[in-house]
Amino acid sequence: MMRSKLSAFLAMVFFAIALNAQNSSGSLRGLVQDSTGARVVAADIEVKMLASPSARQVSSDHRGEFRVEDLTPGSYRVSVSARGFADATADVSVAVSAIRDITVTLSSPSVRQTVGVQARGSSITEQPIDLASSVHQGIVTSQDLEGLPLPARNFANIAYLAPGTEPVEPSDPTKARITAVSTGGSSGLNNELSVDGGDNSDDYIGGFLQNFSPDTIQEFAIRTAQEDADTGGTTVGSVIITTKSGTNDWHGDTAFYERAAALNARYPIENPAPNPKQPFSRQNYVGTLGAPIRKDKLWFFVAFENVQENASISYSPASTTQFDALSTLASEGLIPGVTSIAVPPNAPIPFRDYFGSLRLDWAQSAKSQWYMRSSIDDYTTHNSLVQQGTLPSTGLLTHNNYLSMVVSNQFVFTPTLLGKFVFNASGLHLTQSRNSDLGYALAFPFSSTSLTVSGFETFGDNQFATPITFFPSERNQEKYQFRCDLSNARGRHAVNFGINFIHEPVLGGSFPGNTETLYQFRQNPTYYLNNPVQFTADQIAGASTSNLGGSFSQNIQRLAFYAQDSLRVTQKLTFNYGLRYSTTYGLFSGSGRSQLKNPGYLTLQALNIPLVSGTPHDDRRQIAPRLGIAYSPSGSGNTVIRAGFGLYFNDLAQNGWATAFQAAGAPAGSCFDPVANPGGQENAGCVPGGSSGGTANLIAPNYRTPYAIHFSGGSQHAFSANWALSADYIHEQGNHAYRAYSYTGGTNLFTPQLSVTDPDQATYVPDVNVFHSDNRSSYNGLLLHLQGNVTHRFTLIANYTLSKAQTWGCVLGELFDYVNGVCNPLDAFGPGDYGPSGEDVRQRFVLAGTWHAPGGIELSGLSQAESARPFTITTADNKERISINGDPTVLDQFRGTPYIQTDLRVARPVHLGDKWSVMPFIEFFNLFNRNNPGANYVTNIAALSVPSADAQSGNVTNICTNAACTTTAPISNPNQLRLAGGALGDFFGPGTTVGIPFAAQLGLRASF
Q1: How far apart are CA 448 and CA 468, in angstroms?
Q2: CA torsion angle for 970, 976, 980, 986 (degrees, to 10)?
Q3: Counting C-beta atoms within 10 Å of the first and last residue's C-beta, which end of the chain has fewer, N or C?
Q4: Spatial distance between the Cα atoms of 810 and 704, rounded to a whole number of angstroms
């Protein structure tokens, strides 16, 4: 008794705190009627989870309706009894973040009835229609994760089964193996992820924080539009994961996966015969176990996975030719301090990963249920960031450590009133150690492609300063989340309230602290073999010395309140409406110091440059309404029409602004008048002029939290119990996303204390980067989804998406990302700066299914086909877009090639008695061995086959017709400049939109 009261007290106390987490439970909604269709009032309904003593009791209301909220995803037995009727039972599956509708028809008391609603929804191919929600989502279960081929053993490989999603490259080199999913034409960094109700988002760079083994996941929902008011921290989509738990039955798995070079096809672009085949091997070791500690009371589930991968980068003949030329230049004494450069045939990239997860579930009483989950992901990567155009000296040893813990309690105050409390603690510690510390790096055009960042440097130190942004050598993130929700399903209403709070006392890192020089050459090494004098001249001209050193840190609090109601207006019509308010504290402080202490701000004030009028403040205007309807016109439950509107706020990832936090975090010196007395002590805190390498980094004062407006409408119809089709239209309008304005002292930024033509302008005026939140974007998509069972042996889904995503940018365009910049800060919305996003896939088709063939063989496959993605070709310095015959190109004008890949899995389960089964299998990836460069094309003019004069001017008028470029021809088509960049890997990790060649994987799984 005391324990129940204590649980009730805790639930009420913690109903004052939490943030940006989503409901990881499901709901059951039903109608009780008699054989004539008349409603049955005051029927007793028990909803009991199978293989668990967990049960809930409710009664049907005066309309014969009932609703049960916050059910753990899984299979349930629904028992219905009413005076004057026979009892009835039904087995029903409840999915994460979904509402399941059932109708129970009671018969005369002479017959005990089993209702014809069986436990289904064990796969995304068999999801029932949700008649109550306007949320667009797909639900993926553990059966999908185990049954379909996963090239990277990653749940994101399956998320693409949901309509409106796309593959996307891992977008952060500091956590290259973390999964990513694109929704709404974005990079995926603006998606929000929760695991067991706990926030798992990366607030530094965006996207997902900690990775989880697929064998840990029970199921997940990927939501592509119209989330309810309980969801924040996203402008596009969200992913809700629930992990496996123990039951009264002992159960578990052990599995082994094997891949090797002998099972992979050769990639002729980079590894042509007769060269030795590129080394590769990978093994996955998996083990899970769930069992009762005390039957009907306490359970545990533990999972572990180890990845042992020995991959390598095999250099293409083109890269090897450039490396050999660079080695010759070194032997001729042209590279200071280096007389020889080794050119290996490949660069090994060993990778080791350890996943672990432990979950405890405790049924404290009939009213109080607890669970605790703790997880770890620890991995190391050697030669990290080495790409096809870079030597191993540019690589890193990366070590990532992730920890998380979730504690949750659900308390039943009354049959209709529930409280749920979640405490979540998570942490990341990352270190990156360089392979070399020469104090400089050499960068050549052939190393820079659209999908490489470390490729900016060819030899020497990895500078961490890239064409995209800065990446730290150390990252730390601590997050503590408190969340409490109340739900009350009463009468026609299902009301939810929540107060959410996140505290991040540590969100920061540091950059390398030594002074370094980057030598950026305008030509490739082969050019300089015949022009050694030009090598020295270009080395001097392309030198830039900097020190990125210093830490950056934030201490942030995020607070949100929400209220949501699902109103069943009639049996056919449900109206969903809600309101969310959120805000942030400390967003713009660096190490506890305001941006008023930023030396760049003080310097501009001292120079009387009115570029920024003040400093930014936390945005308190984040009011987000959510509206939606779900209408079933026939009342039979076979058809539903949905429509919705909502606002979604999401603070941008802090990575793009890290230099501004770093600047504010350091103790500020004084800066009064650097022009009048540049050497005076009172001006010791001024940022030096641009000619001396001085750069100021500031955040614009008129900051607004980025948000998106969602409009959607569509319909879903079940033709039968086995077939369903849906069609949805989604419009998403993005506002106030991040962009960087870069000014050059003495060129487009001047102090009024000197004449504009005074050559000393650059002596006193620094280069300035101002970070604005003024970008705009749009996404429009038509989503078609078909699911069904062809026979009892064959299930399938088919998705088709027709979409268009556009944004403002200079050389890169992404929706709600940190990479967008402006070409001309004096004309930030200039001609050609609005174009497709990097993930603008106009058409995408997905087909997946499983066939239970004769002889017990199971065949499952996943095919993807999508139209080409865009890319931009830049000038040699990567700062602007090229021109063709004097006409400037526009953002993402060029397109790569369509992506087509088919993966297949062949398995033969062998059952040993009632409990054990053993399943050997083989998986084939890129079954037809299609070359899929995607959008990985050469994006720097200096690396293309054009005359040197054209490469230096940035205006292409001719193309070379032989290797030595002694003969040329006028360019007549922009596609003549498309040159595939190759790449077995891609941005920062294993390929998704850059396909791998044919590969096979052997495996064995034992289950009980």
Answers
A1: 11
A2: 100
A3: N
A4: 22
Q: Is 637 helix (H, G, I), strand (E, B) or coil?
A: coil
8 Å CB contact between 191 and 232 = no
> What span, in angstroms and rounded, lies between the C-alpha atoms of 63 and 65?
5
> Cα–Cα distance between 199 and 180 in angstroms, integer?
16
Length of the chain: 1008
Closest by Cα among 223, 68, 62, 72 to 136: 223
Q: From residue 365, how far is each of 8, 207, 370, 608 by CA, in Å?
A: 11, 38, 10, 69
Tokens for 726, please give them: 């849906």
Instruction: Give the C-alpha separation, 481 to 505, whole Å.
Output: 11
Cβ burial of 613 (10 Å; 0-12, 13-18, 19+) is exposed
Note whether 963 and 317 are within 8 A (CB).
no
For the four alpha carbons of 210, 214, 217 and 222, in that order, the dihedral sign comes to positive
Structure tokens at 243: 């992990």
Q: Are 173 and 454 in contact (CB under 8 A)?
A: yes
d(CA 868, CA 997): 18
Measure Cα distances from 807 to 298, 738, 780 in Å.
52, 11, 12
The letter for the amino acid at 984 is L
Q: Are strands 65-71 and 573-585 parallel, antiparallel or unpaired?
A: unpaired
Q: Which residue type occupies 1008? A: F
For 252, phi then psi, to 5°, come to: 180, 175
The answer to whether 408 touches 421, Cβ cutoff 8 Å, is yes
Classify strands 99-106 and 707-718 as parallel, antiparallel or unpaired: unpaired
Query: How many other C-beta atoms lie within 10 A of the C-beta of residue 504?
Result: 20
Q: Are 334 and 343 in contact (CB under 8 A)?
A: no
Q: What are the 10-residue block averages of pLDDT along the chain, 1008 residues in total?
A: 42 36 72 83 87 80 85 85 85 82 78 46 60 85 83 78 82 74 88 92 87 90 89 90 92 95 84 83 96 94 96 85 95 91 91 96 92 96 86 92 95 91 95 90 79 68 61 88 93 92 93 84 90 93 82 92 94 94 93 91 95 92 95 85 95 80 85 91 93 91 94 92 90 94 95 94 95 95 90 87 96 86 93 94 94 92 93 87 96 93 95 90 93 82 89 94 90 91 50 77 95
Which two structure tokens, joined as six digits, stand for 139?
A: 């639900």
Q: How far apart (Å, rounded) are the C-alpha atoms in residues 455 and 395?
A: 10
Question: Using CA atoms, how far apart are residues 724 and 797, in angstroms rounded to an integer?
Answer: 10
Q: What is the rounded CA–CA span in Å between residue 628 and residue 419?
A: 25
Q: Rounded to whole angstroms, how far apart are CA atoms 324 and 342?
A: 9
Question: What is the distance between the alpha carbons of residues 685 and 667, in angstroms, rounded to a whole number?
Answer: 9
Model pTM above 0.85: yes
Q: Which is it for the CA torsion 873, 874, 875, 878, positive or negative?
A: negative
Nearest to 158, CA basis, from 145, 171, 143: 145
The one-letter code for the residue type at 827 is D
H/E stretch holding 325: helix 317-331
Nearest to 236 by CA among 340, 170, 164, 178: 164
- What strands, in cross-sheet order, belong to the sheet with 887-888? 887-888, 883-884, 955-956
Q: Is 288 exposed, middle or buried (0-12, 13-18, 19+ CB in 10 A)?
A: buried
Six-digit token pair at 500? Answer: 């959410």
